[in-house]
């Protein structure tokens, strides 16, 4: 049954695609009615039961009324059946979703049709009767429309008598009555049911729109059969005035907007009817029968050896073996039975696949662990590199700060020494000639404008030299500290030491002055 459902859905989809491909050619060559008949193919295929594989043979009758009871069996067939429990669950779930979607789809459109009919009945006004079919006016529609499966009716807009002239009114009502004559409303419900079973299939939705177009075009061809150009013009005008959207799928609206453009073009060009309508209908019938037969489902049955008599009742697994007819050469050694060998081979393959799958899982787990280890090692290396760069940067900053401090101290000492040297030079010019041992002397001056006394102290000889010696000692002390600082990178330490060496070399001791 499940296989038949799948084959039927697939076959009807193939037929829909085939009809969508050939319907333009059929409509142009043989008319719209022939194209409309093509849609019988998927409808008939949808309800076609499986065909027997051997329709004329009686060998299949050899296996009938057979009851097999397995008691406590552990045969491969039971094992394989239990192994498919998971697949059965998924199959049941898929069928539930498919049927649930079909019910919801059909129910939604059915409720839309019922509500639409109730809205029409709420303010409907009877106008006249066309035979047994009443014609009603309602503000719920803007186009003539055919409704009802059993209680048939034609509904027109409230302004039907004012918006349409007499010829347009006659042709519009004739169009809707033709729908009822051809039983198009129940046909539309059947098409809606097929579409509901294909609710997930975009091909079916597109095919349904094409089916409705061909249905309306076939109705146009019937109404315009033998019509004059004036009647064609009036029919096209009525069709244009009847443009209406939002109609339930099962209703037959004259001016459905989805088909209006194509129908008007056919009416204007005169292709609404065709002189080859009857040959086209015959061709369509052949295509329908051929398509249905080509896609029919068949049940394949294994031929039964007539030499083996099948028992009526067979009890396995303990107790007695009761058969109504003798069983000769029906029981074979399992090792020699092709089915048993096939089951054994299948079990071996399944076991090998399980082992391979387990090994594949272990290999995948090992690969994942290796990838994690590599990622952790890479992360640790990156962290160490960042920490090393951070430490080197901090050490460089600290060395630069020490260098700036040393340079500042050296600059202060140099300024002091320079001041001392200048004073010593002036002092030597003034009084060092009178001081043979280079000691510090004092010279008093007069009073300034404010009455304050001024005194100038001059340093000669060793005093000036002592200032430069202090600078050199400070620079050398700093150099020694930096040279023994292991926290600094080698390159940074060498750069700082070279700068200090240049500072020490630039501060030369003063030569010992010669006494005059």
What can you tell me about this protein's structure?
The chain is elongated and about 145 Å long. It has helices at 2-30, 32-37, 40-47, 76-83, 85-123, 160-163, 166-181, 184-197, 202-223, 229-241, 260-269, 277-294, 338-430, 462-483, 490-506; strands at residues 51-52, 67-70, 125-130, 133-138, 145-147, 153-157, 243-244, 252-253, 255-256, 298-299, 313-316, 441-447, 453-458. Strand 5 (145-147) and strand 6 form a beta hairpin. The strands form five sheets. Strands 3-4-6-5-8 form a five-stranded mixed β-sheet, sandwiched between helices. Strands 1-10 form a two-stranded parallel sheet. 24% of the residues are buried. The N and C termini lie far apart (136 Å). It is an alpha/beta fold and 516 residues long. 62% of the residues lie in helices and 10% in strands.
Count of individual beta strands: 13
The helix/strand order is HHHEEHHEEEEHHHHHEEEHHEEHEEHH
Our count of helices gives 15
Bulk shape: elongated
Strand content: 5-15%
Largest sheet: 5 strands, mixed
> In what order do the strands lie side by side in the largest sheet?
3-4-6-5-8
Radius of gyration, CA atoms, in whole angstroms: 55 Å
Cα-to-Cα separation, first versus last residue:
136 Å
Instruction: Label the structural class.
Output: alpha/beta
Low-confidence stretches: 56-79, 299-335, 427-445
Helix content: 55-70%
The average pLDDT score comes to 76
